[in-house]
Structure formats: structure tokens, C-alpha cells
Write a structure and sequence with these properties.
Order of helices and strands of chain B: HEEEEEEHHH
Shape of chain A: elongated
Number of strands of chain B: 6
Helix content of chain A: over 70%
Radius of gyration of chain B: 19 Å
Number of domains of chain A: 3
Strand content of chain B: 25-35%
Number of domains of chain B: 1
CATH architecture of the largest domain in chain A: Alpha Horseshoe
Oligomer: heterodimer
Number of helices of chain B: 4
Structural class of chain B: alpha+beta
Helix content of chain B: 25-40%
Order of helices and strands of chain A: HHHHHHHHHHHHHHHHHH
Distance between the termini of chain B: 41 Å
Radius of gyration of chain A: 30 Å
């Protein structure tokens, strides 16, 4: 009798533990199936898929499932689905709102993208970042330009301009210089966008020494042979020590040790040679050790 | 004592009920199974040109259970060269039932179940969308 009770107790314990394990495994399986079902809806007619996706988004589901639902919504090419996506981008909160905004960028629907303007204007910093990201994904340079051109807020302007830089929007960035005047963030954006032409023009302009120096250093970010020649030319022609140093910094940033080496070999000024040698050491130039040997031997 | 035996037997039955179900259709023999089904969904075009709307579904069974699923438009059938058990043209409902059997087969690899679910939705019957709706609404 005692043994039988023990056996029954053991069986109950085993049953409960296997049931608990099975329930946890069932829940994982259920989640995987839900995700697969949602993803499969991408091939379904939008009129069949939209009500189901809508229900997932308005229901008490995990954030992962809802984010995937937003992606499926973004891929439905109907006015109804795009309107729903804009509604989620406008009315949701936190992570889901940011994801809905990004999904509008991925979907690339022009009307939905246009709807982001109001969401940007009324949103907080996270929402504004998400909208800029959506414009980046959709390559909507004009929308970002409008933000930069119409804001009075320096940080907003800077964020929008940096985004235009990342989008390689040369024309829009040049137009902003005409409208808003030159600024540090614009110079950085010219560098990010690779606009060597504008930076070379600014690097030659000594009417604003601070901006000139920033433009010269920013040329180093763009890099390339032509930039190397410009920086060498600036270094040689500049009377201002700060401009010379900025040109060297530009060469350092671009990793153009060949140009610094050329300057080193073409000067007889010992203090200048020392400074150029320091730059070559900082740049980790392969030839620097030969130069040091030659300098110690007095042959160069 | 008798009451304890009854409890014991009850627990045994419960344990058996908890054991996973198997996908019966593909237990008969290992190898490839094939059936075709007309899909009500406009499937657009494929690498072979415009799709016919008739889908040929292949299921590979090993050790009595499905391990792989492939599906092709009838105009672009690149099925296996090996011997295939042909289940013939099936109605949408019968095709759904086979795919659902795989989706719900707890012994079946999750990837295979997910593939089956994909093709189930792809063939797009009313019952399928109802199932998907219920699945996504479940807690």
C-alpha cells in the first residue's frame, strides 16, 4: 500500500513536471507558429490579410509580433493599409510608434511619407529621429530639406542636415548654405556627403577663419588625390599658421602620408621638418623609420 | 485501495493524452509525396513566366514524419527526380487538411511546420484565413 502510494505520488510529480515543460514548449511553438502565420500573410491578398494584421496590432500581443505585423502592413500596397500604418505611426506610443514610422520609410508609399510631416511636427525627440530615419530609408531628401529649411531650432537643423549628409544630398545642402548661412553642422554634412567641391571653395575663403579651418579639416574626411593636392596647396600658400596646421590635420585625417612626405622632402626648415615628421609618426607611415635613420645620419 | 487504482489509471490516461500526435498521412511510407491544388490567390509571375495558379506541393517523409516541403507552380514544376507517391489533384479543402496536419504535428520539426503554414496561407482558402485569425488571436 505504501509502495503504491509512493508510486502514485511519483507519477503525479512526473506528470505535473512534464505538463509544465510541455506547456512552456507549447507556448514557444505557438509563438513561432504565430510569427510564421503572420509572415505568410505577406503573400495573401491585402483584403484578407489586413483585418488579421489589424487585429494583431490592436490585440494584447508581444512587441515582436506587433513589429512584424507593422512590416507586413507596410508591404500591402493599398490605400487602406497605408492609412492604417500612418494611424499607428501617429497614435501608438514608444517603440511601436517608432517602428511604425520606420515601416512607412520601408514601404515608401508617397502619401504615407507625406503623413510623416505632421507626426514630426508634433512628436518628441524619439519620434523626430524615427521620422528622419524613415526619410533616410525612403531616400526622401526633399522632406528632410523642408525640415532643415523651416526649423528655428539649432539641434533640429543640425540633425536634419546630418541626415542630408548621410543621404548624399549635395544640392539640398548647398541650397541650405544660401538660406541659413554657413555653420559647423553644414560643413560636417558636406564632409559626410563627400562634397569636396563645396569644401574646397570654403577652404579657400578666408573671410571667416573659423569656418575656413573647419572646412580644411573636413576635406580630410572626404579624402582622395584631388583633396590631397588642395591641402598641399593650402599648406604651402597659407601665411596663417592655423590654416597650415588645419591643412596638415586634413592630411592626417585622410591618411595621406604621401603628401606629408612630399612636404617633408621639399622643406629645408628644420623645425618644419620636425613637425612634419611628427605627423608622419602619428600617421604610422611606413617610410618614417627610413626618414628617422636618414635624419640621424644627417643625409636628409 | 480501489480508489487509488482508479486515480492511478486516470493519471495514466492523462499522460497518454498528453503525448504528442503524429502526422498520419505521411507515416505510411518514407519518401516523397505529391499533390496538386488550384489556388484561388493570384500568384503573379515566377522565373518560368506567368504562374498558372495550380500549385504542386511535395512533402518528404522520413521515419514516418514530414521533414521537408517544396512547392512549385504547375508551369514551373522542379520536383524531385526520385519516386514520388502521387496523391493526385486535391480539392483546396483536402490540400488544406494535409498541410494543417503538418502544421499541427507536434512531432514535426518547427521549420517544416512553418513551411507548411506558409504554403497553407499561400493557397488561401477561407478556412485557412479563419485558422490563421484564430491562431493569431490565441493567447
Amino acid at each position: 500500500m505504501k509502495n503504491f502510494l509512493k508510486l502514485a505520488t511519483a507519477l503525479v510529480l512526473v506528470l505535473f513536471s512534464t505538463t509544465a515543460l510541455a506547456q512552456s514548449s507549447d507556448a514557444e511553438e505557438q509563438d513561432s507558429l504565430k510569427m510564421a502565420a503572420l509572415e505568410a500573410l505577406i503573400t495573401a491578398p491585402p483584403e484578407r490579410a489586413l483585418p488579421i494584421v489589424d487585429k494583431v496590432l490592436s490585440g494584447n500581443n508581444s512587441i515582436e509580433l506587433k513589429e512584424r505585423a507593422l512590416f507586413i502592413l507596410s508591404q500591402m500596397d493599398t490605400p487602406e493599409s497605408q492609412a492604417r500604418l500612418v494611424a499607428y505611426a501617429r497614435d501608438s506610443q514608444g517603440e511601436l510608434q517608432s517602428e511604425a514610422i520606420r515601416m512607412i520609410g520601408i514601404g515608401g508609399d508617397s502619401e504615407a511619407l507625406a503623413g510623416l510631416g505632421d507626426i514630426y511636427a508634433s512628436g518628441d525627440a524619439d519620434v523626430r529621429d524615427a521620422v528622419l530615419e524613415a526619410y533616410l530609408i525612403a531616400d526622401d531628401t526633399d522632406a528632410v530639406f523642408q525640415i532643415a529649411a523651416n526649423t528655428a531650432d539649432e539641434e533640429e537643423f543640425s540633425d536634419a542636415v546630418q541626415m542630408l549628409g548621410a543621404m548624399g544630398a549635395h544640392d539640398q545642402l548647398r541650397e541650405l548654405r544660401g538660406r541659413a548661412g554657413l555653420s559647423e553642422s553644414l560643413i560636417q554634412a558636406y564632409a559626410i556627403s563627400g562634397d569636396a567641391e563645396t569644401l574646397q571653395e570654403l577652404a579657400m575663403d578666408d573671410s571667416n577663419p573659423e569656418m575656413q579651418i573647419q572646412a580644411i579639416e573636413a576635406l580630410g574626411i572626404v579624402g582622395g588625390d584631388e583633396v590631397g593636392l588642395t591641402l598641399i596647396g593650402l599648406y604651402r600658400s597659407a601665411a596663417d599658421e592655423d590654416v597650415k596646421e588645419a591643412a596638415l590635420d586634413g592630411l592626417l585625417i585622410s591618411g595621406d602620408d604621401a603628401s606629408v612626405l612630399e612636404l617633408y622632402r621639399n622643406t629645408d626648415d628644420a623645425s618644419e621638418k620636425r613637425e612634419l615628421l611628427e605627423y608622419l609618426v602619428m600617421m604610422g607611415s611606413d617610410e618614417v623609420w627610413d626618414l628617422i635613420d636618414s635624419a640621424l645620419e644627417g643625409t636628409e | 485501495m480501489r480508489a487509488l487504482k482508479v486515480v492511478f489509471l486516470g493519471l495514466l490516461v492523462l499522460a497518454l493524452l498528453n503525448s504528442p500526435a503524429t502526422a498520419s498521412t505521411f507515416e505510411k511510407a518514407d519518401g516523397w509525396y505529391r499533390w496538386s491544388v488550384d489556388s484561388p490567390v493570384n500568384m503573379g509571375s515566377s522565373c518560368c513566366g506567368d504562374m498558372s495558379g495550380e500549385l504542386t506541393i511535395y512533402v518528404r517523409s522520413e521515419n514516418g514524419g514530414p521533414v521537408r516541403i517544396r512547392a512549385y507552380d504547375a508551369s514551373c514544376d522542379k520536383g524531385p527526380k526520385e519516386q514520388v507517391t502521387d496523391l493526385g489533384p486535391l480539392s483546396l479543402e483536402d490540400s488544406d487538411a494535409l498541410l494543417l496536419e503538418i502544421v499541427q504535428g507536434s512531432n514535426v520539426d518547427m521549420d517544416v511546420r512553418e513551411d507548411a503554414l506558409f504554403w497553407l496561407v499561400h493557397t488561401g482558402s477561407d478556412a485557412t484565413f479563419k485558422y490563421v485569425d484564430q491562431l493569431l488571436s490565441s493567447r
